[in-house]
């Protein structure tokens, strides 16, 4: 039975709820950006001012870029997140295709294991992985930052849900044309899965770009620091916390994520729509 569209009052209430939620989400980011424009003396006053009486944009952003090698940290973030995403695509797509389209004994059990692993936070496995990497001599390297995240059970689940929507006739036609299963994955399924890949890419990049916990325990060299570790330089140093440069550094760090999301927003929504509903 089709539900009736909401009346004027319902539409107003719905938009009011959505606008309230959007305001709650945006306010911390707006406050962070406005704080990055203020001098230290105006940040710590008791009165509430949204706009600074004296703008300190050049001082704060200049200090954020020169006090620490911020550009190096941003490049490290790009290297780590890009390497993780490429490895996840290489692993996730064949696994998701096998769980969605191949018939073999134990497929249901394997998918249940994938669902079970979704419930385990990566912090729970941090100590065993740290000890393993220590014994292998991989700590304090790009490998330590990338390899633990090469397999993403969330990515396997998301791509499997998308592949379930692909008609079997398309795969059968590829087999008749002589393509093997790996050929079908990379030449047939991959081009159809671009919206789902973009949606997963947004989740993956945001999670690993903002990850503070794992880089903090496996990296000791400053030249390998990722953006969140770079932002921490401005917190509780010898002169106390410098909130202006701290907020400026945080704004610089999140700008690539905001730009990437705005650029891929349409594909992201398509990917979530196609992958989240059908089982």
UniProtKB/TrEMBL annotation:
GO annotation, biological process: transmembrane transport
Gene Ontology CC, one term: plasma membrane
Bilayer topology: Multi-pass membrane protein
Gene3D superfamilies associated with the record: MetI-like (1.10.3720.10)
Compartments where located: Cell membrane
Top-rank lineage group of the source organism: Bacteria
Pfam families on file: BPD_transp_1
Keywords on record: Cell membrane, Membrane, Transmembrane, Transmembrane helix, Transport
Transmembrane annotation, as ranges: 12-34, 73-97, 109-133, 145-163, 184-209, 243-264
InterPro entries (alphabetical): MetI-like, MetI-like_sf
SUPFAM superfamilies: MetI-like
Residue span, ABC transmembrane type-1 domain: 74-264
Chief location of this protein within or outside the cell: membrane
Family of this protein: Belongs to the binding-protein-dependent transport system permease family.
Protein name: Carbohydrate ABC transporter membrane protein 2 (CUT1 family)
Species for this entry: Stella humosa
Upper classification of the organism: Bacteria, Pseudomonadati, Pseudomonadota, Alphaproteobacteria, Rhodospirillales
